[in-house]
Amino acid sequence: MGMKEEVEKLKEQEAKARAGESPQAIEKQHKEGKLTARERLAKFYDEGTFVELNAFAQHQCHDFGMDKRRPYGDGVVTGYGKVNGRTVYAYAQDFTVLGGTVGHTHAMKIVNLMRIAQEAHAPVVGLVDSGGARIQEGTGTYSLIFAENIDASGVVPQISVIMGNCAGGGVYSPALTDFIFMVEGTSQMFITGPEVIKQVTGEEITMQDLGGARPQSRISGVCDFVVRSDEDCLEQVKRLLSFLPSSYKDAPPVVKTADAFDRSEESLLEIVPDDPRQVFDMRQIIKKVLDNGDFLEAKANFAKNIVTGFGRLEGHTVGIIANQPMVAAGCLDCDASDKAARFYQTCDCFNIPIITLVDVPGYMPGSKEEHKGIIRHGAKMLYTYREATVPKIACIIRKAYGGAQVAMGVKAMGADLILGWPTAEVAVMGAEGATNILYRKDIAEAADKEATKGRLIEEYRSTFNTPYYAASRQLIDIIIDPRQTRPQLIKALELLRNKREERPKKKHGNIPL
Prior knowledge:
Helix content: 25-40%
Strand content: 15-25%
Structural class: alpha/beta
Shape: elongated
CATH topology of the largest domain: 2-enoyl-CoA Hydratase, Chain A, domain 1
Number of domains: 3
Largest sheet: 8 strands, mixed
Mean pLDDT: 91
CATH superfamily of the largest domain: 2-enoyl-CoA Hydratase, Chain A, domain 1
Radius of gyration: 27 Å
């Protein structure tokens, strides 16, 4: 057989690999509102740039009739290409081929891809749509992927995109990655499915109520981003990638912006209410400060008392962690602490400066949070903030009280620069609480207790709960005009652009997990 004939044979085999197992399986996938693996990759990558790897790989299982079903690819498409001009590696599990089940060959294709990505210093995106472990091949397949997820952690960004089923042991691969996307109505994640739950506990629950995008993004906090369709999901993954570097050795991409670096924002004077007990939406401040108001919020529906996400200042990526006074007065609880600690660590992994916007009255009081472990969970924020070596800037908008203030960034914990609005209060507690403790005897002995208490509260507030008192003790570096928040943050980032911080040599610390 000559070369031309061999090339024709190659084309035939490539077409066979692309075709999948059956047109019926593809039609069923479409009826469920899902794209196929190859359609997803085609929409994800810049046109004509995707290069497939191991397209002709086949499983080596010959038991249980598997010798008669050995499709090319073994239920997963792997490869690399360009996403908005940058190299990205990806795998897409193909539910139309062997139900996307994971056997040894399937797993090794993913592992090989991830190893190459780490060597090439490029992100890895996993499009997950699988029937789980392939029973005919026994156990041990997923552990190969878990091990590689752990080795790649902090080396290159890892993004998991749940676009169908992800169950049993398979859920731990996404859980070991940096971000998880889910598609509303068509994706689900759970360790134990509804049928087993019913048999063991008697509880009846649907797959979506158990592990759909809503419970996993609102209750468990497993999911970072929820989207409406496969197409929208892939666009949002691209958007996230635009904020991230290709690896820990790189800085995040710099994006040209028409938003002036010295823009003064007049409306910031009107956002914070005069009454310190009234709430405001911290997202308004975030969006008015960032380039073009562009803010990609992570875990938006989980632990809403704290806001985390990515934006840009003068084209440079920043990570924003901000208290949200509209929810639980911005108090830190167990879930908020976990959410913020995870985000601190993610930013530090990938050279993204951390900016905290502070309005925090304290940790959430009460037996419920104490018994959930607020001590342990709150300590995670302290640990990850201190451990981070990227530029760290805090801007105190209003309240910064007690231990919660420390978790949001203070000088002793490694904050490089602390800005304060004229409304900033840095204290152990609010003026009323402090007065009740410090002047208990004076109030008790006063003829008019309420008038005396009111006078003492006001005296305490005007003397101690001011940014000037905090600045006199170097707890605030610069008191700023709120309108100048954006240019002040940009100047601070420029100052810290070449920051390099070395930590003491050790094997690793012991985070209070």
